[in-house]
Amino acid sequence: MKLNKNKTTFGRHETFPLxxxxxxxxxxxxxxxxxxxxxxxxxxxxxxxxxxxxxxxALYYWLQVTGLVKFEGGVGEVSELGKALLGNDGDPYLEDExxxxxxxxxxxxxxxxATGFFWFFNHYSAPRFRDKDALQSLEDFVEQELGIKRAHTxxxxxxxxxxxxxxxxxxxxGEDHLDSPLASLQLVDTEEGYGYSSLRTLRPFLPPVxxxxxxxxxxxxxxxxxxxxxEAAIPVRELLYGGTGWAAPGAVFRLTEEGLMTCxxxxxxxxxxxxxxxxxxxxNQLYRLTPPQQPKDVLSNYYKGKAV
Length: 308
Prior knowledge:
Layout (H helix, E strand, L loop, with lengths): L21 H11 L9 H8 L3 H14 L2 E4 L2 E4 L1 H7 L10 H12 L6 H8 L5 E2 L1 H15 L6 H15 L3 H4 L15 E3 L3 E3 L10 H19 L6 E3 H6 L7 H4 L4 H14 L4 E6 L2 E6 L6 H9 L5
Helix pairs in contact: 1-3, 4-14, 5-10, 7-8, 10-13, 10-14
């Protein structure tokens, strides 16, 4: 979804990074007990989920951010996306690396419910940084770009949780970090004697379906916001750098220009009737040749072994 300064969220994860098994367990339990996360049922939720009270609140948040469960008045319903991604016909045990890349995209592209994460992957471009410098940049972004005020402690919590969730060095984050599935994507690293790095690289093993999923969601979201006006193309530069308020797959997946082009060409090979790259008047654009698929359909086709 597009960044909207009137709809932002920071720090609702209770400082708990997403853990292995949380999303799957959440989807499974909500499928059986729709009111499991209702405020009056927190004791029950702690028992059935096997986690503490604050962790229940964190899982409630991560289920919303990823869109795997829709809540209304504390009552949840597993979304079609949730069923396709983590249902019996999907990848409930996160055995496919593509699943993790897609979960990452769902978080980093959610400007409304995970604004700090959206900022980091779509706006913060420093390849190497110290946490205090990144925090200052986040505070500047919130104040100058969004024109809002958020507590220093809230923004610090958001950044700290992000770094613990994506950094592969468990000892820096303590016990809470040991089960963070997104650390394996190596999108954030630690550098001894300096701080952190988040480098754009070629990433030749990025699963084409992850990029396809991101592109289809991007096209679908834009069409939905624009009503009947269907935008059939996106400049490759916009996919690489963003800058229009939409999440940029190249930035979210930390790809260099060559890495993005390589991945896009792989997507074109896997989905030949869906996209086309054209250079018109010096502007390289990605065109969609068919109406955008629903994200759940992209996943269903992939997990069933169909590439259409």
